[in-house]
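Reminder: ligand-aware prediction takes two inputs, not one.
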Amino acid sequence: MSETKLISRPRRNRKNAGIRSLVQETTLLPSDLILPLFVMEGKNQKVAIKSMPGVERLSRDHIVKVAKEAYRLGIPGIALFPVIDDKKKDKRASESKNKKGLLQNTIRDLKNAIPELVVISDVAMDPYSTDGHDGLVEKGQIVNDASLPILAAMAIAQAEAGADIVAPSDMMDGRVGYIRACLDEAGYESVSILSYAAKYASSFYGPFREALDSAPRSGDKKTYQMDPANSREALREVALDIEEGADIVMVKPAGAYLDIIQLVRANFEIPVAAYQVSGEYSMIHAAAQKGWIDGERAMSESLLSIKRAGADMILTYFALTMARKLSKD
Ligand code: PBG
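Here is what comes back for the chain with PBG:
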């Protein structure tokens, strides 16, 4: 008789790969992923983004090619962000409502080439604004209510071009309701709203701002994006966006905010998206480049963890690499 009488031996469920796969609770699929893409003017253009290895600004022709590849790999949707020439920027982000603007043209290209692909377009002033803020700046303040018509006009231009989902990332109060009402009035009641509901004022957006050249020209975004210290406030933001008509709510960033994803998942029935942002992507790449971590495993683990926390869908710059890996596994 042995001395130890262990009744429970959790290791039994880990003893070989077959058993491990049978007891696996969370499975990541290409259909969980959304690929963010940066579109720029011109033809046959690809410009590397230094702080995001493997990610490039692409002209429209290349965007269509990459989106086709994503769709072929089972990625259902892409999220589009425009790189706007400095000379087209102004205080009121006027270029954002141009029917023939870069983003709108790209949406049309994509819907013509791959009608089934879900096209998500970003609604915020920063890529178009000389101030680099998501709302209108007056006397050094980011003004809320005066920003709403600008955001709504942007959303309508995107809906008109064929966007399936508009995604306000600006964090102005009341913008989901305002945009919903304007979309409906213009006849776009079937266009969905994915709201960046709990978006934190995060250091992890650094590389993205390089990608779009959209960093605030003065000040920071703390009067509209959330304080990383707060979680109850996230529930309030999400509740408001749902009341105002959001179809999907997002938590952003993802990796350092898994508790927020879990909270939102537990408290609401609505689908939850999470954005693994540029800094999260770049950190994994940087450490892998130095040989300090296994980049591919860190990618899989970080995305699986975001899904485990409760995200129904994940925006990630790893989408293509991850989907390729999943189709090989
Ligand atoms: C701004 C916007 C940002 C991101 C998406 N939309 C940056 C910001 O708020 O300054 C960040 C995405 C990323 O870092 O990958 N409207």
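The chain has a mean pLDDT of 97. The radius of gyration is 21 Å. We will return to this case in the review session.
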